[in-house]
Specification:
Number of helices: 12
Structural class: mainly alpha
Largest sheet: none
Order of helices and strands: HHHHHHHHHHHH
Oligomer: single chain
Radius of gyration: 27 Å
Strand content: under 5%
Helix content: over 70%
Length: 258
Amino acid sequence: TFMTWWLMLEEPARHGRLARIVQGSVFESISSIVILLNAIFMVYSTNYGIANVGAQRTPIMSGMELFFLAFFCIELQLRLLVHGMWFFCNKDYRWNLFDLLLVLTAFYEELGTWLGQVDGGANVTFMRTMRVVKMAKSVRVLRLLQFLSEPRRMVRSLLGSLLSLFWSFFMMVFVFYLFALGLVQGMASWMETEYVSDSLREDIHRNFGSVQVAMLTCYTAATGGQDWANYYETVVQTGRLNCIFWLGFIMFSHVALM
C-alpha cells in the first residue's frame, strides 16, 4: 500500500555545516535544556493562573512564552531545512509531526491571547478552545523522551500493552456494571415493599440512586476511595439479599480484580 511504501523510504545521509549542527549532540543538548526549562516555566505559569484567575500574564511571562515559541519555531525550521520533505517520512517522522503540532498549538495560543487582549475578551467557544490548547501544551515535556533512550523504551513497552490494558479496564467496568445493576434493582424492589425513612432514602439516592452512581460507588469502594463499610451501613438496612450481594462484590473485587 501507499503507507507501507511511504514508511519504507530511507532518507539519504545529510551533509553540510547546517546538517552537522542540527544532527549534533550540542544542538540536541540545547533543545533538551530548553524543553526542561519550558516544563519548569509551565509549572510556574500554571500556579500563577490558578492563584490569579482572570488576570493577564505578566510582561515577564509573556516574554518567556514568546522566547520559547521563537526557539521551537527556529528549531523546527532548521530541521525542515536539513531534512526537507524527508521530515515527514524518515525514521523520526512521528516525533517530527509531534513537534510540528506542538509549535502550531503554541502559535495558536499566542495568537488567541493577543486577540483576546485586543478585543477585551472572547466568546465562550473560543475560551473553551483556548483551555484545550493550554492543556495540550503540557505534553511538550514528552519531547525529552526523544533524547533519552531508556525512558523511551519504557514508553514503547507501555504503548505495546495498551490493548491489554484497555480490555482490563473494560472488564472492570463490566463487573462494576453488573453489580451496580443488581444493587439498584434490589434496592428499588425493597423500597417498594418496605418503609423507608427519610435519612435512609437520602443515603440510597446519594450512593445508589442510579446505575451510574452505583458504579461510581462500587469503584470507590473497590479502589479505596471510600471504606466499603461506610456503604455497608446503608446496604445492610435494605435487606439480606442486598447485603449478601454487596459483600459478594467486595470479595470478588478484592480477590479477582485487584
